[in-house]
Amino acid sequence: MASYDRPRAGGSPRPLETGATWWYAAVAGEAPGSFSTRVRTRTRRACLGAVLLLTVVYAGLVLTATGRRWGDAAVTGRRADIPVATFLREHPSLAGFTTASLVTGAVLLLAVGLLRKRYVLTGLAGGALVTALAVAGLLQRYAPRPRPGDGAGALVPSGFPSAQTTLALGIAFGLVLVVPHRLRAPVTGAATLWAAAVGAYSLAAGQHRPGDVIAAALLTLAVLCGLVALLARRNRVRPARRAGTSLRGLAVTVPLALAAAAGLGAGIMLLGDTLGLPATAPYDPAELRLAHRCGQALAAGVTLAAGLLPLVLLRHVDVDGGPVPYRLGGPFVEAAGVPDEEELVGPFTEDRDHEIS
């Protein structure tokens, strides 16, 4: 049995790891619907995992007294973090710049999709963005939580999840759908860094708690994965050309993964020192500053990890159109050659005079 005939767990042959899309049908024997099925399975699992983590974050940081106390300490600790407070005081225009960048990002997403004439994908990206914002608004308004001023409530109102981070990361995820596959990694990586900066500003300005930013990242990730799963269910995904894309992708995903791991690692290390805050004020300014930095690290790490996951899940997946059709030809792959313009040619030539005797 040839190497490309090794059976997979689901029974379909194993596709080759190199080459263009034509290998899936012409040589590897990939069934027409198996690629879409595998994409749908992994994106659906990612969607369910993000929803589960969102539930855990809500229960731990909103419903428990320890989580609310930690969130309050992270918010009030921004004043004890002298470098951050000084920077914001010396640059009051950051608030307007953040708002302008969100508007510019939304316009850019729409412009890229329309200029590339990907009207359906642009509509789907906009619909996913609106859906994420709508769910965030519903959670902010109707999700049960203790009221401010209650004995068990938080010191300041909670914006769970953060609308700013939801919008910023939703724009980054929308670009996954509308930009060409060869540019997906650099464009999405840069947009994810910008979304992490928006979340960091909202924490430093006291607009949101760390849990709000983390929840926004998980919510937006769940919506994107659910949308891609629906596209795969409708057979709207196909294998992307791999030639020349691996190095470009690694140049973005590796630094993004290192930054996400650094943020999560630093946040987890600091979390143990900040959860033991006393139940009542006054607090030590050093503990408040530590809680703020811990929240910043965790929020940045989760946001970067959420932006990295679509690049990993959709590394060799092209959503720009339906699956590529393929045809069968004459007796040898060598005679058929590698096709152009994404046309799939099987292991037989197209000699129409050939007959099987």
Give the tags.
two-stranded antiparallel ribbon, two-stranded parallel sheet, mainly alpha, 357 residues, 64% helix
Overall description:
- By secondary structure, the chain is mainly α.
- Helix content is 64%, strand content 2%.
- The strands form two sheets. It has a two-stranded antiparallel sheet with strand order 1-2.
- Strand 3 (326-327), helix 12 and strand 4 (344-345) form a beta-alpha-beta unit.
- Helix 5 runs parallel beside helix 7 (163-178) and helix 6 crosses helix 9 (210-233).
Which segments are poorly predicted (pLDDT under 50) over 5 or more consecutive residues?
Answer: 1-9, 11-30, 149-154, 322-336, 338-357
Give me the secondary-structure category. mainly alpha
Number of extended strands: 4
Largest sheet: 2 strands, antiparallel
Strand order within the widest beta sheet:
1-2
Strand content: under 5%
Set out the fold topology.
Blueprint: H1 22-26, H2 34-63, H3 65-80, H4 82-90, H5 94-115, H6 119-142, H7 163-178, H8 184-204, H9 210-233, E1 238-239, H10 246-274, H11 285-313, E2 317-318, E3 326-327, H12 333-336, E4 344-345
Parallel strand pairs: 3-4
Antiparallel strand pairs: 1-2
Helix pairs in contact: 2-3, 2-9, 3-11, 5-6, 5-7, 6-7, 6-9, 7-8, 7-9, 7-11, 8-10, 8-11, 9-11, 10-11
Short characterization:
The chain has 357 residues and is mainly α. It has twelve helices and four strands.
